[in-house]
């Protein structure tokens, strides 16, 4: 799957709201990106429907449906952040990161809300023998948005830092899961697994969030969301200061796919 990107010539006079809407339109502005969005949503739909129809009735809860549905979509969502970051790096003239990050966050929230609606519908139209199938529904719904938000910010951050979109996409999977596995293999470091997106997603999508879990999630957001994008923003500022909008050769590679 290839995505040539969308020409983008940002104007410093454009308001933040208008600029954000423009980026949001570009997120699905090519056939490849629309296909990628369809795949993302289909993964969530199939996961929720498959578990609701084929799983044991006692396991049919909103949390149990949301976990696989939101998790599968979160593997693909970072690809959109990577592509938007590539659009930004290819833009002519001075560029602003804020509209891209806002649009990426809104896009992630929309995907999460789609998953919430799918899981709620699947649970409504099937029979559940669970004691409380809607337990923690509010926390899981909010957690779904937060899971997709972090996934998307990892995508924009690595998209800004890495030249090749395909490598950046692979890194959005390998780095968080690899670090989680590595920390889990060492007894002394196992508590640090809480600082990985995978660990925080498990708590958020289960709905069982203690005060400490929320602190851990905030740390994950700061490290994987704010930290990566701060590094990417610094790189973008250096590029703007150098006045060289021409993309490096590696940035012409095909976009990631899954």
Automatic annotation (TrEMBL):
The chain crosses the membrane at residues 35-56, 68-88, 100-125, 137-160, 167-186, 214-234. Keywords: Membrane, Transmembrane, Transmembrane helix. This is ABC-2 family transporter protein.
């Amino acid at each position: 799957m290839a995505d040539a990107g969308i020409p983008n010539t940002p104007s410093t006079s454009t308001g933040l709201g208008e600029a954000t809407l423009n980026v949001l339109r570009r997120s699905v502005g090519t056939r490849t990106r629309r296909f990628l969005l369809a795949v993302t949503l289909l993964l969530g739909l199939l996961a929720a429907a498959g578990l609701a129809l084929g799983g044991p009735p006692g396991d049919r809860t909103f949390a149990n449906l949301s976990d696989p549905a939101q998790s599968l979509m979160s593997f693909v969502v970072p690809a959109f952040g990577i592509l938007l970051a590539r659009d930004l790096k290819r833009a002519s003239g001075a560029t602003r990161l804020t509209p891209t990050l806002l649009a990426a966050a809104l896009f992630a929230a929309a995907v999460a809300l789609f998953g919430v609606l799918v899981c709620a519908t699947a649970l409504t139209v099937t029979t559940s023998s669970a004691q409380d199938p809607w337990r923690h529904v509010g926390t899981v719904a909010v957690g779904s948005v937060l899971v997709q938000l972090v996934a998307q910010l990892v995508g924009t951050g690595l998209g800004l830092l890495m030249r090749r979109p395909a490598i950046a996409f692979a890194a959005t999977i390998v780095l968080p899961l690899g670090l989680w596995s590595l920390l889990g293999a060492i007894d002394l470091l196992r508590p640090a697994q809480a600082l990985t997106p995978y660990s925080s997603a498990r708590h958020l999508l289960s709905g069982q969030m203690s005060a400490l879990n929320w602190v851990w999630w905030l740390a994950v957001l700061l490290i994987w969301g704010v930290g990566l994008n701060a590094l990417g923003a610094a790189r973008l500022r250096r590029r703007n200061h150098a006045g060289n909008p021409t993309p490096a050769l590696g940035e012409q590679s095909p976009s990631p796919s899954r």
